[in-house]
Amino acid sequence: MYRDPGSANRLKYRSQRQSLAGIVADIFDGEHYQRLQSDYVTIDDETLDHQYFSHPNDVALSLCTDGFEPFKTRKQACWPLILINYDLPPSIQTRLKNILCVGVIPGPKQPKELDAFLEPLIEELETLACGVPAFDSTTGSPFKLHAYLLACFGDMPANWNRAKGWEDKLCPPLTHSALIRVPGLDFPRLFPHDFMHMMFENVVTNLLDIWTRSGDWADFGTDLDPYLLQPEAFREIGKSCAASGNTIPSAFGCRVPDLKEKRGESSAESTLLFATLLGPALLCDCFRYTRYYQHFVQLVSLINKCIGFEFTREEIQEILPLFPDVRACTLPLHALLHVADNIKAMGPVWCYWAFPMELFCGPLARCCMNRRFPYLSFNRRLLQVAQLSQIKHIYGLAEELNLDEQGENILKGTSYDGYPNLVFVGPGRRTVLEPKLQRQVIKYISRQTNVPHHAERTALVTRPLQIWGKMQRLDTSIGGDRIGGDVVRGALVSPRHNQNSRDTSHVWELVGLYKRHNQRLIRKLR
């Protein structure tokens, strides 16, 4: 990565970042990173002559793994292993091209011996802690590259399966995971609770099951319990969730499916969107007693506090009392009591939640071309992506070999001084507005300029105006780059009622299919 000047400059984030006193805004503000900076690297009880992150080019990494069902069924699953590079700015850390996949543990069952699959990675991390030769293209000089693992998160497979089926006296001796050999890895502090699994795949989903007596809570309580949602109300809530995707911009997140009919299509991201944005409005006045709705709103407020981008030391201390102290609870609820400790030690929860894994698994599912040997398809695809990434960095071909979707490209069209953030694109035509649209335009202009309606009507009644086919709104990315935003199609704003039109693409496709097989049928069709 340091051989490419552009990539090398982006990797300067950690070394050039300035921490603010009393503010926790990144993993580098956590107590663990601050403590590591004063410790010497130790491998196999041998202390080396350099400290952690003593060089500006040292790399901070985190390991994430989670179960992934390629065929949307729980019968088969595999376990990708990905690394997040914290030396990149937070705005681009979790982009697909910056996520480092070090392997996929094949299925169809979860691994019983996770250490066996992690052994190659552990050996490489030990080598990187000692240092490997590298070249910095920004300074034109060689240096010794070090990389250290700061955190492990995700849904780690349970090690108790290793002892399943053993008699008490025949159980093998309890030993530590092989990850304990990784330099700088502090057990158990470096395994923070994943807020995504904890909240959006457990707490919120369990609440929905309890309110509707479904899933694992189908036999809990009775149909007369006051906290239950009426089936008709929940059905309407599900329909409203599905319909909201047509009007909510994609920047807010993915679509929320119908929670009544298509609950299985929901993901952690859609649950986050429902809980924090849609739920407070849709659930209002749906419960028999308002205290249940108020309880949910308090939970939403707590979620918003926990997923903040930055915290002061005082705000971290205020989080813990917000969680109720109960005598008995499920493991995800108990893990919520440690959120404040995780933020203090490892930074905000967005530094170590598993949403990047969901982002990574989406394209991975689409590259499965062989349903008989899906894991071979995954391995081949990931190997090709890694090889292409190396070619980009070595030969400086990042732009030429860019495989990312270009949906945010700025359209080439006409700009007006009065609308600097808009680009207008053809096809276009000059025509006099229809009476109904004229009245709407006149009303808007009159309200904005305080010009009387009759004066506006006189100016527009016979004046031809330019009508564009598309309009794109230009945005600015977090990095300051100019990018293309939402595209509005003019046909939806000003349709041509005086001319009938038809989409004949299906006719041409039909002709093309018949032409390849039977020329006689083509003549009959004509």
Structural features, described:
The protein has 3 domains: 5-191 and 367-395, no CATH class; 195-351, no CATH class; 414-505, no CATH class. Helix content is 37%, strand content 17%. It contains 18 helices and 14 strands. The chain has helices at residues 5-10, 13-16, 31-36, 114-130, 195-212, 231-244, 268-282, 290-306, 313-319, 331-335, 339-346, 355-366, 374-395, 435-449, 453-460, 490-493, 505-515, 519-525, and strands spanning 23-24, 40-43, 46-51, 59-65, 79-85, 100-105, 132-136, 141-145, 147-154, 311-312, 414-416, 419-431, 465-476, 482-489. The strands form 5 sheets. The chain has a 4-stranded mixed beta sheet. The chain has a 4-stranded antiparallel beta sheet with strand order 11-12-13-14. A two-stranded antiparallel ribbon has the order 1-10. Helix 5 packs across helix 7 (268-282), helix 9 runs antiparallel to helix 11 and helix 14 (435-449) crosses helix 15 (453-460). It is globular, with a radius of gyration of 29 Å. Residues 156-167 and 497-526 have low confidence and may be disordered.
